[in-house]
Amino acid sequence: MLASSRGCPGLLTTLQRSTARLRLGVSGADLHNGATAAGVVHFETTLEQAQEAVQKWHGQKWLAPRRLLSEGGLELRSALLPFWLFATTVQVSYSARLGLAVQDAPPGVLRWQEVEEKASSLQDYPWSLPHMQVYASYKYRRDLAEAVKSADAYDRAREVSDDENAYQEVLAGKHSSDSVPLDPPTMRQAIAWELALRSIRQQEADKARMELRLKWKPREIRDLKVQAKPLARHAHLVFLPAHTVSYQYGQGFTAAGERRPYTFQAVVSGTDLDNVAGERHIDPLKAQLAAAGALATGGLAITALSLPFVGLGAPRLIGGAETAFWLFLACSAAGVGARMWPQLLREQSETQRIKEEDQEAAQFWARGLGPTDLGDELAQELRDNAEWRRWEQADKWRWREGERGAWAERLWRGQHERRIARARFISGQTRQRLRDEAEAAQEAARARRWGQSSQYQHFSPGQRNAAGGRRDYKGYYQLLGLDGPSASLSTGDIAKAFRQAALRSHPDRIEAGTEAARDQAAERFQKLSRAYEVLRDPDQRRKYDSGQQPTI
Questions:
Q1: What is the C-alpha radius of gyration for the chain, rounded to an integer number of angstroms?
Q2: Tens place of pLDDT per residue across the chain (552 aa)
Q3: Distance between CA 352 and CA 359 in Å, rounded?
């Protein structure tokens, strides 16, 4: 739940008072050699209790297997999982295009209005919120680690001693002699903060949509841009207690045709046995009994209703071989479906992920021009969200710690480089626009004093029409690879030409070479983007074709 900073001391003061409790500033080297830890929360449950909790969690469903953890392959482990706990205060503003209903107009006709909410409110995000606690490792799936989070984790944490840091082990509890390992925090703080900030933006976007619907009652909301600017950020590395249960259930076939049991994992909080994360299962025998009972009940009902119409007795409909066959078929199908249930759920989840990814890709393409286009801020945010969702969800049932960690590092570095490239691009565009405006001002001043220049007369509309074609005095058409201007050249043709040219000259495609080569590629891409910015706008294109200076 969001907490407003209005009318109260606020989170900033609270953070300043509490930063001395745990050690901060874990360096990149410390993250990889495990030399430094911030705090730890003690266990309050045992492995045996965790095993019972998993069995109880599955037993909440009637169709679940009764003895799920007794089929072999059972592995139990207690560990302290690392989490980055963040606390921040953000300044929020947003803008959007609203499709409002028009009175006495057909339902499909909307009046579009730009709405902007200035940055006036401060929102507190303390470390007690689940999305401000980020699992700082790649060892387990992200959705399984959710069970370990605790709202009072920071308040209950104590500092890890130097000896515990050295041995990377901590006593399980205050009155326990058993040691539990500290899982190393392999996720850098910058990546964890990126994930937390993504959640903050999503929370604020949902809140903005709700406010817009309540205030404006729009038929449609488009181009929602949310600015969540952090004013302060504090981070703690805290180890939270967890029990992991690995077990086997069901069987499948490998690519070589060998039968192999499926392996599943469940995670239980070390402080609250009600917090369990795992995958549901269905007992094939119970599914068969349920199918047989449902079919038999349905058969009796159909028989009772059909007797007056078909003139047949009940024994001929219920006790015959056909009924036995259908019962056998239904039971067999139910048993197969129960065994395939985890796989079916996985396929459904993957289908939903791909659908959401396609929707985000469509929004991105609607704002930009593809993977090489720098786009605007919203387009970059859409792309970043899609990449992180794919990282979290894609093929997560074959989670491999090393591969997933390397993937996250590549994503973070790529997004960081894109932000730098976009900042340089915007800066270059600004400088180019200032140069163009200065040239236009000089030309206007000279025209007032001496008359139009020979260049302007050469590119005047009359001369252009007499020549039977347009002039390309800045080389914009040439940059896009177009063979001269043409009256039949459409905006779509220009967009297609820009995509092709961008694929050839984008700085990200310069894999090797000197920094000068990358700078040259970046400069060329800026010119290319400037050319497209002018030519895709019909008004600016007409000005350019007539030899006038574009005004954007």
A1: 32
A2: 333 333 333 444 433 433 333 433 344 444 433 334 479 999 999 999 999 999 999 888 766 677 788 766 799 999 999 999 999 999 999 999 999 988 887 777 888 999 988 766 789 999 999 999 999 999 999 999 999 999 999 999 999 988 888 888 998 876 566 899 999 999 999 999 999 999 999 999 999 999 999 999 999 998 898 989 999 899 999 999 999 999 988 777 777 778 788 889 999 999 999 999 998 877 765 655 555 555 555 554 444 444 454 444 444 444 455 555 445 555 555 445 545 556 666 666 667 766 766 666 666 555 544 444 555 677 788 888 889 999 998 888 889 999 999 999 999 999 998 888 888 877 887 888 788 788 888 878 888 888 765 555 444 443 343 333 446 778 888 888 886 666 678 888 888 888 888 777 766 655 555 667 777 777 788 888 888 888 888 878 877 877 777 776
A3: 11
What are 492's two structure tokens? 């779509």
In angstroms, the CA 134 to CA 136 distance is 6
273 belongs to a structural domain: no
The Cα 231–Cα 88 span in angstroms is: 7
Q: Is residue 92 domain-resident?
A: yes
Task: Please indicate, yes or no, whether residues 350 and 312 belong to a single structural domain of this protein.
Answer: no
Residues 36 and 169 in one domain: yes
Which residues span the domain enclosing 303? 284-339
CA separation for the pair 296, 303 (Å, rounded):
10
Looking at the structure of the chain, the number of domains it has is 4
